[in-house]
Design brief:
With 390 residues, the chain is α/β, with parallel strands linked by helices. The protein has helices at residues 37-54, 69-77, 91-103, 116-122, 142-148, 162-166, 170-177, 187-204, 232-238, 289-298, 307-319, 330-337, 344-353, 374-389, and strands at residues 6-11, 14-19, 58-62, 81-87, 109-112, 129-132, 153-159, 208-218, 221-230, 242-247, 254-258, 276-282, 328-329, 358-361, 364-370. The chain folds into 2 domains: 6-319, Vaccinia Virus protein VP39 (Rossmann fold), CATH 3.40.50; 328-389, N2,N2-dimethylguanosine tRNA methyltransferase, C-terminal domain (Phenylalanyl-tRNA Synthetase, Chain B, domain 1, 2-Layer Sandwich), CATH 3.30.56.70. Helices cover 38% and strands 23% of the residues. A 7-stranded mixed β-sheet has the order 5-4-3-6-7-9-8, with helices on both faces. The mean pLDDT is 97. It binds S-adenosylmethionine. The site of S-adenosylmethionine has 20 residues, from helix 2. S-adenosylmethionine binds next to helix 2.
Length: 390
C-alpha cells in the first residue's frame, strides 16, 4: 500500500482517517467529501428511526464505502445495529475501511471488495438497509438493489448528477432515468420525482413498491429514504402514482396527470400556449410527516455536528409533507408580471386568507407550494403590489 499523509476528521461520535488530498474528487486515493456531512448525519437519524420502527436488530450494507465513514458511523452511532457490510471496488478504500473500523474499536463490521451490483446479488435478501452513495448516478445499481432488497427494508439513495435530473440537458436524464425532464424553477423537485419514479418502476419488476420516507435536494446532490414493500396487487396500485407534470413557459401554469399511458393536455388551459412535459415521474408523496417528525425528535438523542442545518431542513420538509406537487417561485412570477416583489410572508398570508393552502419549501427560500393556481397567485401579487404603492 502506497504511503500517504493521513488526515483525521471527526463526525458525530466517530473518528475517520484517510489519505490527505487537495481537492474533493473521484481522483483522490480514498474519497471523502466534507460537504456530505449533513447527508450522513440525516442518514444516522433516518436509519435510527427506521430501526426503532422495526423494533429489532438491523443489518446494514454500505455499498460504496470510500473511507468507510457511513458504515463505521452507522455501527458506532445507531442503536440496534447487528452486522454492517462495507463494500468498495477499490483496494485502497478497503484498507482505510478496515483501519477506521479498528480506530473506532468496532465489532461485526466487515469489509468487501466487489462491484456493487455483484455484491448485492451475492447477498440477496440479507440487508435491512442498503445505502447507495455512488459517484454521480445510482441508476446502474438500482436493478440489483431492487432485486435483492428485502420486504420492509430501507433504501437510502444519493444522486449527484443533478444536472441530468434537473434537465440542464435532456438526453442524460432520458438515458439514465428513462424520463424526460424540463428546466424550470422547480426542476429540483421534478428531479427528486424522476429519481423516485425510476426506483419505483425498477422495483415493480420484482413486485415491490416504495413508500418515500424523506427526500431532499441540497447543494449538488439529491438524497432519498425509501421503504421497500412487497406484493403484486399493491405494486399495481402504487404505480398509479406514476405520471407527468406539464408546464406552461408562457404563464407559469403547471398541472399533473396520473398514469403512464393516459392522454395529457397539449395546450395550457390558462393561456392556450403549448405545454412542456416531464416524466414519467413519481407524483405520490415524497415526504412522510410522521417519519420526519421522528427524525426531528431523534436529534435529541444523537450528537451530530450539523444539528442546526439538519433541523432547519427537516422542519422545512415536515411543513411541505402534504403539500401539492411543484412550487411557485415568487421572483419568476414577479418578473413575468414586470412587478417588484411584495414581502414573501405577506404573499403567503394573503394566499391563506383567501382559503388556499400555502407553505414554504426546502427547495427554494422564495418558493411557495400552494393549491391556489397561477391565476390566483398572480392576482394576489398584483393586489399586494398595488397596496405597496399606497
Ligand atoms: C462517492 S464515493 C463513496 C463515499 C462514501 N459513501 C462517503 O460517504 O464518504 C464512491 C465510492 O464508490 C467506489 N466505487 C466506484 N465504482 C464502484 C462499483 N462499481 N462497485 C463498488 N464500488 C465502487 C469508489 O471506489 C468510491 O470509493
Amino acid at each position: 500500500m502506497e504511503e500517504y499523509k493521513i488526515k483525521r476528521i471527526e463526525e458525530g461520535l466517530t473518528k475517520i482517517e484517510f489519505p490527505e488530498f487537495e481537492k474533493v474528487s473521484s481522483e483522490a486515493p480514498v474519497f471523502y467529501n466534507p460537504h456530505m456531512e449533513l447527508n450522513r448525519d440525516l442518514s444516522i437519524l433516518a436509519i435510527q428511526v427506521f430501526q426503532k420502527e422495526q423494533d429489532r436488530e438491523i443489518n446494514i450494507c454500505d455499498l460504496f464505502g470510500g473511507s468507510g465513514i457511513r458504515g463505521v458511523r452507522y455501527k458506532n452511532e445507531i442503536d440496534g445495529v447487528g452486522e454492517v457490510s462495507i463494500n468498495d471496488i477499490s483496494e485502497t478504500a478497503n484498507h482505510y475501511e478496515r483501519h477506521n473500523i479498528e480506530l473506532n474499536d468496532l465489532k461485526d463490521v466487515h469489509v468487501h471488495q466487489h462491484d456493487a451490483s455483484m455484491f448485492l446479488r451475492m447477498k440477496r435478501g440479507e440487508f435491512d438497509v442498503i445505502d447507495i452513495d455512488p459517484f454521480g448516478t445510482p441508476s446502474p445499481f438500482l436493478d440489483s438493489a431492487s432485486y435483492c432488497s428485502r420486504r420492509n427494508s430501507l433504501l437510502c439513495v444519493t444522486a449527484t448528477d443533478t444536472s441530468a435530473l434537473c434537465g440542464t440537458y435532456q438526453e442524460p436524464c432520458i438515458r439514465k432515468y428513462n424520463s424526460k425532464p424540463y428546466k424550470s424553477e422547480y426542476c429540483h423537485e421534478n428531479g427528486i420525482r424522476i429519481l423516485a419514479g425510476f426506483v419505483a418502476l425498477t422495483l415493480s419488476k420484482y413486485a415491490k413498491y416504495i413508500e418515500v420516507k424523506m427526500s431532499h435536494s441540497t447543494e449538488h446532490y439529491m438524497r432519498m429514504y425509501l421503504e421497500v414493500k412487497k406484493g403484486s396487487k399493491r405494486t399495481d396500485e402504487s404505480l398509479k402514482n406514476m405520471g407527468y407534470i406539464s408546464h406552461c413557459r408562457n404563464c407559469l401554469h403547471r398541472q399533473t396527470s396520473n398514469g403512464l399511458a393516459s392522454p395529457i393536455d397539449e395546450v395550457c388551459p390558462v393561456c392556450g400556449e403549448k405545454l412542456v412535459h416531464a416524466g414519467p415521474l413519481w407524483l405520490g408523496s415524497i415526504q412522510d410527516g410522521d417519519f420526519i417528525q421522528k427524525m426531528i425528535d431523534e436529534t435529541e438523542n444523537k450528537k451530530i455536528n450539523t444539528e442546526k442545518d439538519a433541523l432547519k431542513l427537516l422542519n422545512k420538509c415536515l411543513v411541505e409533507a402534504d403539500a401539492p406537487a411543484t412550487f411557485y417561485d415568487v421572483h419568476s412570477i414577479c418578473k413575468s408580471l414586470k412587478l417588484s416583489a411584495p414581502k414573501f410572508d405577506l404573499i403567503l398570508d394573503e394566499i391563506r386568507n383567501e382559503g388556499f393552502e400555502a407553505v414554504k419549501t426546502h427547495y427554494n427560500p422564495i418558493g411557495i407550494k400552494s393549491d391556489a393556481g397561477i391565476e390566483n397567485i398572480k392576482r394576489i401579487i398584483v393586489k399586494l403590489n398595488e397596496n405597496m404603492k399606497q
